[in-house]
Amino acid sequence: MAILHPLPAQNEHSAPKWDSKYEEQLPTFFEEFETVAKAAGIDANDAEMKKGVLRYANPESMRFWRTLPTFKEVAKTWVKFKKEVLSHYPGALEVAEVTTEDLKKVVSEFAKSGISNSKELSTYHRKFSIVADSLQEHGILSGVQVTSFYVQAFPDSIRIRLDTHLQVSFPKKVKGQAYSLTKLHEAIDFLLSDAEGDDFYVAKELSSIRGLNALIGECAVHCVADSSCSIVAMSDATSNTLGLSFDLKRRIPLQSANGKMDWTLGVAKDLPFWFGDIISFLQVHIVDSPAYDVLLGHPFEILTQARIQNFLSSDQHYTLTDPNTDKVVMIPTIPQELPWFRKEDGRDRRNQQVE
């Protein structure tokens, strides 16, 4: 049997308190009263609830609340009385007015100052969440839009790895469904702690690497696999031939095999690659005139759970798994070929090799 406690006296520490100068605190005052009322066992008695709350109000408020019809009429419930009281205090019903501009300011502030560790990330997460939650609650922004704003505070080196990390961590997520801010916070915190710098290695000249063919749309494309590469890359000639669109703002610095620094042209998101009977959606960086059509870096191996089997004959087989269906395919590699697509006179053409 629950032990009941009498309502605390007005001067007791546990007594609900409210200063009428701060109307916005009135809902909290009512919540505190309902807590002590439940402990006293009167929460189911509307008359006792209405009478009991008066002992914690200041004299002016107490006299006014007694004049309200919902207080005088015995049949009126505590909920209706509370609602009527609140209606007379506009400040108690006000919601902090925030706009998407307020959210952009938070993002811009941290994008400018930089987020490099867990402490800075937590500060950003708290400030962002306060504004974003209000915008979502009032239907101003959707979950997907909030997610899009959230990641804009981070450099491309984090955002590109974030795409892959989330796909690996949540392979069954419905496409188009937003990740929660909690999941984004956890993923970015992991990436910050595991960061090894902002530069990615991409070889522009490849040797002794075998290839495999993939289908992008209705077009067959020759790919070379290189697990030492941190990204999936595609030549701009191949991209143009396939008619791909990509985000020009998502550029990252590259370090080629000879140590030269360069930049990607942008990134094509969620590009579907068919390897036999399985499909993999990859984030593909567009590179100016490399020695390949497509370079499948480490993210490809992670997303397809690739296993490589080498033979004494120098043959090599890839065993790939679709994480959504668990379907498994085995694909034999083929010798690396010259790029099928190239720039010529400002146009991209299929490279016709002369036998």
UniProtKB/TrEMBL annotation:
Q: What is this protein called?
A: Uncharacterized protein
Q: Which organism is it from?
A: Gymnopus androsaceus JB14
* CDD domains noted in UniProt: retropepsin_like (cd00303)
Q: Which Gene3D superfamilies match?
A: Acid Proteases (2.40.70.10)
Q: Which InterPro entries match?
A: Peptidase_aspartic_dom_sf (IPR021109)
